[in-house]
């Protein structure tokens, strides 16, 4: 247990959080992201979420991703199972009902999370939205908006049908954000949402990551700058499609060679890579 995190849980956390773990870089105990839950979340689900986040933040993603989230003060929260009595309202960070839950976080509302029982891939998706808002710079955001436009024009991506949504989540997304989140689902092998995104996940013929590289090189190459292409982790090995068709890593050098011209073309007309968002003071929860 982390003493600083335990103190926060008893103080600003208003004694609600009874389960907490700091996902941190070994070289800096403050360079970390806390995972928090109350007693309405089972230990089994908490541990499953912790293993998922440990892999995504400390093994699959580059260390700079964890650094960005830590500096933004990101907290990852787990709520009890979804019910008519919104379990998020028990959390000290939340004072009103949102129709689709907490969703991804941003520097202005750095809490993200899911309900107990939601799939590991959903946790990865909300974490990714938080990465979009807390880590990616102006050039990367410009590039994935261009990739979204291209995918729409080629009818690879349509919409997640959230246009009429009001007060869905504290940090609303735009369709370019959702497009990249669906691309991440294919990167991880997920097979769902074909009416939204036409690229398949893992099948007997190829992995979702391979299908991305064949049919949506823009999204594939952007994701390769955030997550290791040679990562073969499966979100839930006992479930389909991973039980039958597991993820397979790709050679990092081959991916880098393939993506260099793709990324260069996407960057044309976008801000310089050295341009950053206005500096924010480091937040320590």
Q: Could you walk me through the main structural features you see in this protein, from its secondary elements to its overall organization?
A:
The protein is of the alpha/beta class and 285 residues long. It is built from 9 helices and 4 strands. Strands 1-2-3-4 form a 4-stranded mixed beta sheet, with helices on both faces. Helix 4 packs across helix 6, helix 7 packs across helix 8 and helix 8 packs across helix 9. The radius of gyration is 19 Å and the shape is globular. The mean pLDDT is 91.
Number of strands: 4
SSE order, one letter for each helix or strand: HEEHHEEHHHHHH
Q: Overall pLDDT, averaged?
A: 91
Shape: globular
Relative strand content: 5-15%
Percentage of residues assigned to helices: 25-40%
Task: Please give the largest β-sheet.
Answer: 4 strands, mixed
Low-confidence segments: none
Task: Indicate the structural class.
Answer: alpha/beta
- Strands in their spatial order, largest beta sheet: 1-2-3-4
- Termini separation (Å)? 16 Å
Number of helices: 9
Radius of gyration: 19 Å
Task: Reconstruct the topology from this structure.
Elements: H1 3-10, E1 19-25, E2 28-37, H2 43-60, H3 63-71, E3 75-79, E4 111-115, H4 120-134, H5 138-153, H6 175-187, H7 208-215, H8 217-224, H9 252-267
Parallel strand pairs: 2-3, 3-4
Antiparallel strand pairs: 1-2
Helix pairs in contact: 2-4, 4-6, 5-6, 6-7, 7-8, 8-9
List keywords for this structure.
single chain, 285 residues, alpha/beta, four-stranded mixed β-sheet, 4 strands, 39% helix
């Amino acid at each position: 247990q982390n003493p600083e995190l335990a103190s926060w849980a008893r103080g600003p956390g208003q004694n609600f959080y009874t389960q907490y773990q700091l996902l941190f870089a070994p070289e800096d105990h403050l360079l970390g992201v806390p995972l928090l839950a109350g007693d309405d979340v089972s230990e089994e689900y908490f541990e499953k979420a912790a293993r998922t986040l440990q892999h995504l933040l400390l093994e699959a993603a580059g260390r700079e991703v964890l650094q960005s989230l830590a500096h933004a003060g990101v907290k990852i929260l787990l709520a009890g199972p979804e019910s008519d009595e919104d379990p998020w309202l028990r959390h000290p960070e939340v004072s009103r009902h949102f129709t689709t839950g907490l969703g991804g976080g941003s520097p202005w509302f750095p809490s993200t999370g899911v309900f107990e029982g939601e799939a590991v891939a959903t946790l990865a998706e909300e974490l990714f939205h938080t990465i979009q808002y807390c880590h990616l710079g102006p050039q990367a955001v410009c590039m994935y908006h261009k990739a979204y436009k291209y995918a729409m024009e080629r009818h690879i991506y349509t919409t997640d049908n959230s246009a009429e949504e009001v007060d869905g989540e504290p940090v609303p997304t735009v369709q370019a954000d959702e497009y990249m989140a669906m691309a991440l689902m294919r990167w991880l092998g997920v097979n769902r949402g074909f009416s939204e995104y036409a690229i398949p996940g893992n099948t007997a013929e190829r992995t979702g990551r391979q299908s991305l590289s064949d049919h949506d090189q823009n999204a594939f190459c952007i994701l390769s700058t955030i997550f290791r292409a040679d990562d073969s982790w499966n979100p839930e090995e006992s479930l389909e499609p991973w039980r039958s068709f597991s993820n397979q890593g790709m050679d990092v050098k081959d991916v880098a060679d393939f993506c260099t011209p793709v990324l260069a073309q996407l960057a044309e007309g976008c801000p310089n890579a050295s341009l950053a968002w206005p500096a924010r003071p480091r937040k320590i929860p």
